[in-house]
What does this fold into?
Amino acid sequence: MTTDASADARVTRAWSRILEWLADYAPPSYAALEPGASDDEIAAVEEALGAGVPEELKALWRLSAGENGVNGSGLMLGDWALMPLDAVIEVHQTQMRLRDADGEDEDALAQWQPSWIPFCSYNPDDTVYGLYLNGRTGEVCRWSRFAERQREYESLPAYLELMAVSLEAPLAAAGPEKPGMLRGALVWGPPDGERGSQWVRHLGGARPRHPAKTLGAIREALPGDEREEFDEQRDALDLTDPVAVAAFRDHWWERAVRAQEELEDEVAAALGGSVMAQPGRKLAPEYEATLPPAIRHRPPSLGDIRTALRHESVRTRFSQDFLAAIPPHFPALLLRWWDIARLMADPRGDRAVRAVVNGRRSPDREHRRR
It folds into this structure.
């Protein structure tokens, strides 16, 4: 394989963005990463493998040479764990021994090749499944104990760039795995079983705009079916008692905040969890009718969105999507692009959205697990 001269630079940029996100949003996962490896340590790995390591994988290892794992899960896109270098050597040597033992009886296409360098495993303690980098083609493929060999991503830079985009603009994440938090650590999910009930999906750095702590603003932000109870308690309140007024205000403000956050989750679910979903998904009437002004009472105007989209290439994509949509679907389309405009207000979200709109993702977007 002739390595693209920019591949290692792309890996370095993408992984630096991932490290920045982990440090800000998932400190336990950031702390689980091993320090970067030295050139001598990487050379020792190559000697043990009896094969060269592609430059893009070296670039990744120089920044982080594996992880310890948190909450029984890896932090890499797809819920994989970044393998420590000793595990890389062990898996590669084991696979080569199996290849030699099978000889010509094994399917030649499934036989492990010296240039296949493993770098992710099912979790830090389970290395019977994982991802390897094909040093000849540059593709990222999956292996399993059953000699399955399946292409997953076109390259290591593409895999890491997709991971960075999925973290920075989570509503634009492709594939079945979405970023979320479990006891403060990054876990791709939703996970199964009890862990799933504790997992909280990450919807990005742009938090819902909570209402001001005034009675009028709180009432406006409440769901319609709760306003009557609010009115009754407010009318019975002794407005000359500052303690009672403060307790009433704090109780209902917390309820309004929870209602807004719940509505954010419901809107994301109604839109299919992706602002880049195909146009044509109509927002359910119960969501559209109950959106409070503090979030989005109604879809913003075309002019509002065009003004908020900060780059001409993104505005062009918006115009194309709008022209391709049919009128009944305009509300969902406008909400989707308003989400993009909100993401672009944050520098990291802006960077991620432009990457998506400009088509810099891997064309192989379907990432399936075993």
About this structure: The longest helix spans residues 242-270. Confidence is low (pLDDT under 50) at residues 270-284, 286-299, 360-370. The beta strands are 81-82, 116-123, 126-134, 140-143, 149-153, 178-182, 185-189, 200-201.
